[in-house]
Amino acid sequence: MGEIKSAWELAMERVEKLGKVSTEELRKQEEEKRNTIGQVLADKYLGGLALWQLQIDLDKIAPQERVCIRAVMLSKLVDAIELGNDEGMNRVRDAVCSLNAGQGHTEGFFQEMAEVFESFDSARDKESRSIEAAARELLHQLRISGTAISGVNPRVITEWRSTLDEQARPFRETLDGIKGRLKAMVG
Questions:
Q1: Nearest CA-CA partner of 115 in 163, 83, 144
Q2: Residue 10 — pLDDT band, cuts 50, 70, 90?
Q3: Could you give the percent of the chain with pLDDT greater than 70?
């Protein structure tokens, strides 16, 4: 005859079955942990953490995990580069060049990005001046001029904003290509 088990024994058998974690699940959990740590370190640095403090935080991590976490962090830092944010790009450049020292030449990528930023700034300024001139002409036709207007913000009117956004698209695409190549190298 079958053995009769108490509710406690049945519950313990279920817990044992649930408690076993496969090696695949363990690997996934470790990968998620490394991704989270890399993201947190990148966010801390972008939030103002000094580069030397970032290096100290990385040094606290076990060497076998540090390589993966560093790659995730560098990838997140590169993702944070935005068109028109020269200061942010320079901050990311400092971190990537420092943390990637001896593992590949990254400075060329940042030089390319700086050229894209410069071209974008020049084109954006030219288009903004053109839009501002058109706006001033329109205001002048409405007999609004002189000290009544101190400046025209081209981003205020949706049509002008979309013109500026459309103008930025090829620069963003170029920047995304450079960022992709850089991420492939540091990751």
A1: 83
A2: confident
A3: 84
Q: What are the boundaries of each domain within the chain? A: 1-80, 89-187
Where residue 2 falls (left for φ over 0; alpha for ψ -120 to 50; beta otherwise) is: beta
Instruction: Work out the average pLDDT over 135-164.
Output: 69
The beta strands (E) that lie in the chain are given as none
**Cα 109 from Cα 25, distance rounded (Å):** 37
Evaluate whether 99 touches 150 at the Cβ level (below 8 Å). Answer: no
d(CA 76, CA 179): 11
Which residues fall within 8 angstroms of residue 77, CB to CB, at 6 or more apart?
Answer: 42, 45, 46, 92, 95, 96
Q: Secondary structure of the chain: what % helix, strand, coil (to 5)?
A: 75, 0, 25
- What DSSP character marks residue 103? S
Could you write out the DSSP letters of every residue in 122-174? HHHHHHHHHHHHHHHHHHHHTT--GGG-S---TTSSHHHHHHHHHHHHHHHHH
The model's pLDDT over 16-27, given as tens digits with 9 standing for 90+, comes to 777 666 788 788
Q: What percent of the chain has pLDDT over 90?
A: 41
